[in-house]
Design brief:
eight-stranded mixed β-sheet, globular, binds coenzyme A
């Protein structure tokens, strides 16, 4: 191994272990993603604990206390290296308007699952797409995910549309796989592979 290869390997290891100590701040033209803080609880409550946001996802906490407990849990899971949760903020502002989360499905994060929720005033504004690109780079380049899965209830039009437009591939329908409000719902299973990301990057460079 030459000197550059050794340095690059050391850098990769450093980034790989560092996110477990503290999540990086990720910035695009529109959004900044950062670690959650306990003080995000009130704004997350008002953004995420609404009927339209929560309709097709696991029920969010219903109080500031509940969100504080959730945030404390996310920090413990991140330290354990099994999960990461980013607060979504508009660039230049500090208020959390949503979250992106990613969890390992096997030790070492080779396969992982992500999920997201954004306050409805920010739907259709480009916030999702901007944040999703940052999270995908983090998942594939920093954590080293090989296959990133997502599930969306078949009835969740925006969730399915959002996943499709960032290049997630529909693989199958998981029948009656998710219980919400006492009903079992079908979900679509989506995946993005590291090779999909490389092909997309190469096609962007060519065109
Ligand atoms: C999922 C979520 C983060 C996406 O953010 P968003 O800002 O609504 O997403 P976007 O507007 O960028 O993309 C949604 C796409 O679905 C399309 N869409 C909307 N309703 C649709 C429907 N009923 N059927 C199909 N596509 C639909 C939109 O037109 C848009 O595509 P376009 O930009 O090409 O027009 C947001 O809707 C949300 O937080 N929903 C509640 C939480 C949730 O369901 N999370 C889990 C998702 S699996």
């Amino acid at each position: 191994m030459d000197v550059n290869a050794v340095i690059n390997a050391a850098r990769a290891t450093t980034t790989e272990t560092n996110w477990r100590q503290a999540l990086p701040v990720l910035t695009s033209s529109m959004v900044t993603l950062r670690e959650l803080r306990l003080s995000d609880a009130p704004s997350l409550l008002s953004m995420l604990a609404t009927d339209e946001v929560a309709r097709f996802i696991s029920p969010p906490p219903t109080s500031v206390d509940g969100f504080e407990r959730f945030i404390a849990w996310t920090l413990r899971q991140r330290t354990a290296g099994t999960y990461a949760c980013f607060a979504v903020t508009l660039r230049g502002f500090d208020t959390a308007i949503g979250i992106f989360q990613i969890r390992q499905l096997e030790p070492g994060f080779g396969t992982a699952e992500w999920g997201f929720a954004i306050g409805s005033p920010f739907w259709g504004t480009g916030v999702f797409q901007d944040g999703a690109e940052l999270v995908l780079d983090f998942a594939f380049d920093t954590i080293g995910v090989h296959r990133l899965e997502a599930r969306a209830a078949v009835l969740n039009g925006r969730g399915n549309g959002a996943l499709q437009k960032i290049g997630a591939v529909q693989e199958c329908v998981l029948r009656k796989s998710f219980q919400r409000n006492g009903q079992y719902l079908d979900q679509v299973l989506y995946a993005i592979l590291d090779s999909d990301r490389r092909e997309l990057a190469a096609s962007v460079r060519v065109h």
